[in-house]
Amino acid sequence: MILLENYSHELPRSELSRKRIRSGIVFGLAMIASAFFLGFLFDLGPEPPVENVLSDVGDFPGDHIWINSSEPLSLYDQLSRHVVVVFFCRLSTLTDLQYFSRLEAIHEEFIEEPFTVIAAIQTEETSIDELHGIVEDWGIKFPVIIDNTGTVSSRFNVSTCPSVLVLDSRARVSARFYVGWEKADLRGIVDDLLQQLRAMRYSQIVVYRPDGGTFIPNTIHQED
């Protein structure tokens, strides 16, 4: 009897423990089922857009007008192992002038580094005198390529203006900015990429310097 009485005291506690365990298991299974269900619902919706970050891009075409460069530039030739900022614009608003002022400041700050800024101007204008006048009036000292056919924008997967692409030393897109890009820490991004380049300890890098010349492809001469 004494033994039975002792077990009688333990039985309610064991039953309570079993109930708690069962409740915990049921709750855990319910949470897992809910997670799968919510995941299924989210999979039914549209996927978020994926930016082309750290992806390769095309190179600059060799048959376009260049200003501030006496030859067509290439990401894999003169700009090899360089950090490059490519600015796509139309030179149509005063805001563009402010953008160029900021880009010129960054260009001057890193003038001794393997870094350059390139402007891709979307315009149908091919008059060399007119283009030179625009570049001089706007005080642009870094290389400018005239994207009069949209080829440059297509090669760099750009569909809106303004757009800013930051390419690392391996010609991969590290950052993309669109309207409002002036709020981004562009200088900090360039500095970080240059530090990464220094860490690679390349023995020789020929730093590109704009020569202030002009390149006019034969197709433009034939049109004139």
Descriptive report:
This protein has 224 residues and is α/β, with parallel strands linked by helices. Helices cover 42% and strands 14% of the residues. It is built from six helices and seven strands; from the N terminus they run H-E-E-H-E-H-E-H-E-E-H-E-H. The chain has helices at 2-44, 94-109, 128-137, 151-155, 186-199, 218-223; strands at residues 66-67, 83-89, 115-121, 144-146, 163-167, 173-177, 214-215.
Keywords:
single chain, 224 residues, Glutaredoxin, 2 domains, seven-stranded mixed beta sheet, 14% strand, disordered N terminus
In short:
The chain has 224 residues and is an alpha/beta fold. The chain has helices at 2-44, 94-109, 128-137, 151-155, 186-199, 218-223; strands at 66-67, 83-89, 115-121, 144-146, 163-167, 173-177, 214-215. Strand 5 (163-167) and strand 6 form a beta hairpin.
Q: What is the name of the CATH superfamily of the largest domain?
A: Glutaredoxin
Radius of gyration: 30 Å
CATH topology of the largest domain: Glutaredoxin
DSSP summary: helix tally? 6
Largest sheet report:
7 strands, mixed
Our count of domains comes out at: 2
